[in-house]
Write a structure and sequence with these properties.
Blueprint (H helix, E strand, L loop, with lengths): L1 E2 L6 E5 L6 H6 L6 E5 L5 E6 L5 E6 L5 E5 L3 E5 L5 E6 L2 H6 L1 E9 L2 E8 L4 E4 L7 E3 L12 E7 L2 E8 L2 E5 L4 E4 L11 E6 L5 E6 L3 E6 L5 E6 L8 E5 L11 E5 L3 E6 L6 E4 L4 E5 L4 E5 L3 E4 L4 H7 L6 H13 L4 H11 L3 H14 L3 H15 L8 H17 L25 H7 L3 H10 L8 H12 L7 H12 L7 H10 L3 H8 L5 H10 L3 H11 L2 H14 L2 H9 L2 H14 L1 H11 L2 H12 L5 H17 L3 H24 L8 H10 L3 H10 L4 H15 L2 H8 L10
Antiparallel strand pairs: 1-2, 2-3, 3-4, 5-6, 6-7, 7-8, 9-10, 10-11, 11-12, 13-14, 14-15, 15-16, 17-18, 18-19, 19-20, 21-22, 22-23, 23-24, 25-26, 26-27
Protein name: Vacuolar protein sorting-associated protein 16 homolog
Keywords: Coiled coil
Family: Belongs to the VPS16 family.
Length: 733
Amino acid sequence: VAAAPYGGPIGRDGPCPPGNTSRKEKSPSARPLLEIYSASGLLLASMPWKSGQLVQLGWTASEDLLCIQEDGTVLIYNLFCEFKRHFSMGNEVLQNHVLEAKVFHTEYGTGVAILTGALRFSLATNIDDLKLRRMPEVPGLQKPPSCWAVLSQDRVTIVLLAVGQDLYLLDNTSCSVVTPPGMSPSAGAYLQMAVSFNYRCLALFTDTGYIWMGLATLKEKLCEFNSSIRAPPKQMVCQSPPAGAWSRQRAVVVAWDRQLMVAGNSKDGELRFVLDEDSYLVPELDGVRILSRSSHEFLHEIPEASQEIFKIASMAPGALLLEAQKEYEKESQKADEYLREIKDQKLLPEAVSQCIEAAGYEHEPDTQKSLLRAASFGKCFLDKFPPEAFVRMCQDLRVLNAIRDYQIGIPLTFTHRPAPQGCASEPPPCPPRLVLRRLYPLAIRICEYLRLSEVQGVSRILAHWACYKVQQKDKTDEEVAHAINQKLGDTPGISYSEIAARAYDCGRTELAIKLLEYEPRSGEQVPLLLKMKRSKLALSKAIESGDTDLVYTVVLHLKYELNRGSFFMTLQNQPVALSLYRQFCKHQERETLKDLYNQDDNHQELGNFHVHCSYSEKRIEGRVGALQNALDEYYKAKNEFAAKATEDQIKLLRLQRHLQEDFDKPYLDLSLHDTVSNLILDGHHKRAEQLYREFKIPDKRYWWLKINALATRGDWEEMEKFSKSRKSPIGYL
């Protein structure tokens, strides 16, 4: 048996159904049942156990059931016995098997500790971020320890174990022998140990019936007593009040077959109760739950406010105020007498506060109402009593009473009342726990009543409901998608893509696509469509969004998913994607760009491509070859101007190569004008004249080039000679 903390569900490895009893005895194929009950005893789910030998059950902080097997495999199920995942505690545990196991909770999350057949401890402090730790070996350990427990001190998880009369403490690196302070020398061998819910206190039980209780750090003894029962207890629970609580009392609850003993550091000594049937103890933050086949009880210390009000012949202000309110309802003048007595002592504010506080610790709605009526009655006679405490208490009690109902079965106490945020060391908020039980209407009503923000409250619940809805196989995809959209609409905080992802995980791809139609954010649609291998639809959605980064994401995904031909054909049908891919190829994949132009017979762009490539060639032959290819493409494109310009460039490159060889000066990559100017500057007038004629440079341009070059050179004689060679086309010289 294992019960989740904070009034959580109960899991047990039960026998096979009654009809199979005889068959179970005869056939090993008959399997036990794994059953999960609410805290009120309602069966939530059950399933035949078909896996390995179970050693231990436990619950995570998020109310998932952990099933620890003999081979070290841990299987995780939800509240409805639906498998979620599994993990292994390592090869060493697999080889040596699990002797004992414990599930514990720390600020890191839910952990698992294992004692193997080799008498070594292994543990994981957080099953959601699995990091296995092998604890040091205990020297001379020949048999399993009589008892052991997991402690959490200073954010470090350690193991305390008992072997006979010795206690050993295992941390990450060492094994040390420890002795509890003030332990009686005649105490005997340890049989049982228990750590409090908050890891602050430790209780030890020995074979002489002696019980020691102290701090878990083993630095201080709190109390000791003799139970006078030497039989090993079935269970022992150590109780320590939470930080900031009104109580400072610590107690130990010890259970035998038909007897329960409570002892602690209070003046009342010990209490003993008779158990009518086999019981199981569940430690809680503020008490102990006692489970049996027919009942579920909560054993806890009576709060101080309740004691003051309800003890016999109490004259506390809260008790007088409660009596005054009852007399007022009877229309008796005694109400005024009680009220005057409180007011004369100036204790009316204290009386109101006592009644409000006591109402929180009561489980019966009638008693709660009686106390709150008394508080409300007393407030009428106060001028400046702040109403926040009263209003908050009414809210808390309405929520607590709703979830304590036996059909819901979450018996939270006022100490466990819903917190804004849940973690391993405090109770999780109510709505998520109701969502895990698929009690969506109640969860929504609580969120609305507590006025939680829509994004944090109702929207999250509706999203969970939708994720559950897509798992229902009895309705068509159209019906489910329509029902979800009708319920969710445009509710803020709803992500249809998350619901669609859940539908896809359940094997309902078409439903996922239909749900994605309602998703307004393309950035959420496209990744899931790609995951579902609906790449063409993803491309259309990305283009519709206008987000170029999203389009590039899909295009590159398509490139690696499809073969080359199919990829290009897909882009042909999407001009925007094709254009963007061309831009990408211009910077990243030049050869792919050439293939795209070839496929489209785009000779003009192919010519431009070859011209661009020619400038990356270092050798002149390669450059001329690339330009020759460009020339052929321009002719095919019937672009005579580009063809003529390319032809002239080829001719110029060849001439520049000869000039460079003849004069041993760099002429390559100069423009035609610069080549002519440099030839004139160097005094090679005939070569300049040759270029002028071959490239048909206009007379005016050539004259300006020559006279500027001659002037720069200071060759006035050559300029005078040139000016007289023929009539100047540029006027007076």
